Amino acid sequence: xxxxxxxxxxxxxxxxxxxxxxxxxxxxxxxxxxxxxxxxxxxxxxxxxxxxxxxxxxxxxxx
Length: 63
Prior knowledge:
By secondary structure, the chain is an all-alpha fold. It has three helices and no strands.
């Protein structure tokens, strides 16, 4: 899986995490459920890859 193909989704999740004042875990849990369903039907390891990238960007933003 190429993360470049999911750039729009990754940016959307990061923006949502930055915009909401709640913990990112809640937002990431919601997105995990969304990505498991159609039309994406991503495998758990693919979702983990996206979530890792989101967390990396969030940690970079907080510096």
